[in-house]
Specification:
Elements (H helix, E strand, L loop, with lengths): L1 E10 L20 E8 L5 E3 L5 H4 L12 H18 L4 E4 L15 E4 L3 H9 L3 E3 L5 H11 L2 E7 L8 H9 L2 E12 L1 H7 L11 E2 L2 H9 L3 E9 L5 E8 L9 H13 L4 H27 L4 E4 L3 H10 L8 E4 L15 E4 L10 E4 L5 H7 L1 H5 L3 E4 L5 E2 L1
Parallel strand pairs: 4-5, 4-7, 5-6, 7-8, 12-13, 12-15, 13-14, 15-16
Antiparallel strand pairs: 1-2, 2-3, 3-9, 8-11, 10-11, 16-17
Helix pairs in contact: 4-5
Bound molecules: ligand JHZ.
Amino acid sequence: MIKKFLDLGYQPLANKYLKSYKKLSIKKKELYRLTVGFDTKTKLVSLFNKIPDKIMFDGNYPYKSSMSKTMTDSFRKLSVKIKNRFNPKLFLEIGSNDGALIKNFNKNQVICVEPCSNLAKITKRKGYFTYNDYWDLNLSNKIKSKFNSVDVIYSANTLTHINDLNQVFKSISNLLTQDGILIIEDPSFLECIKKLSYDQFYNEHIYIFSALSVKKLINEFGLELFDIEKLDTHGGSLRYYIKRTNNNKIKIENTVSKQILTELKFGLDNFSTYLKFGNSVKKSKNDLLKLLKTIKKKNQKIIGYGATAKASTVLNYCNIENDMIDYFVDTTPDKKNRYMPGKNIKIKKYEKKLLNNVDYVYLGAWNFSKEIFKKEKKFIKKGGKFITHVPSPRII
Ligand code: JHZ
């Protein structure tokens, strides 16, 4: 049974940055209710309102993984790890985005799968074999008929974006060699609770995984966890290493039971933990608004840094308009001169000078705060301050 624990109100589609501001309507289905639930049986956290893939991921998808050094560094390190530990002859990435990971592999070793045509074009142009398609059984069969099987399948921040998880894992199992490895990485729900980062919820994040839910989910497909790595990326992620249950050549590391125990100790199998989280989110909203209003009363200027999908949730849930945040800055070319989803807040192409005469910078990309603080030493030295809502609204 799926029980509701969080209601983030009516929200626009994240990652749809309009060219000009327009008030969106519920009637025209430009806004939808963002409510989140916990399945007491499967322990899986999911949105109630699931938007079809084709609406979310089209040929104008703006997000590019390569825009953040933290991510390109993380992918470079991972590629070395994969080569050393698994040495795949054939490597497949589901959701290859702009090729931030696969650029570290040989072209003849890699198959890319990317539904957004603007992104698939980039890896194709770089010479990587790319299927511009959604991950499902049809595609898996198509790949099977050409390549037979794949040694390592990897997917970061993608499987949680697909409605039909049963088909996802069936299609993976269909293609993996007997000794094949599946590696997935996604934000950890435990970290999300600890950091009160409710902005991890937006239409694309249909599911938020925990080790508990992944263990149960993959079991049905003859798959099991054999290692888990904790990552700092995207506000705290888990990298799950998965093998076929009947593959006894690989040892199951104690990182798996350790993570599951930590999650159980924290109460991730218990609905009351989720209800508590939902109540704390309401307080976080009030505290953030209080903080922003106090600053604005002093006529000080606040801008946003990182026009993230996460920030879209915060702005719309807290109803933050351009009388509080003047504009956002972002390095992504496709977000330039667009508007934050649902809000009359413009996104300007990042330039250092846009931080001149700014008193406070709200961290839309709080998950990259280390990288941003390093870049903005001058702003900090001149007395500029940052604002975040994670883990509680405050000035840094
Ligand atoms: P970032 C997207 O979410 C959507 P978002 C998606 N659903 C998902 O799961 C995650 O990514 C992985 C900018 N930036 O990664 C670049 C700067 O401008 O937190 C990006 O637009 N300057 C697929 O949007 C944004 O911030 C900088 O110095 O919440 C970061 O977006 C840095 C470091 C970033 O993901």
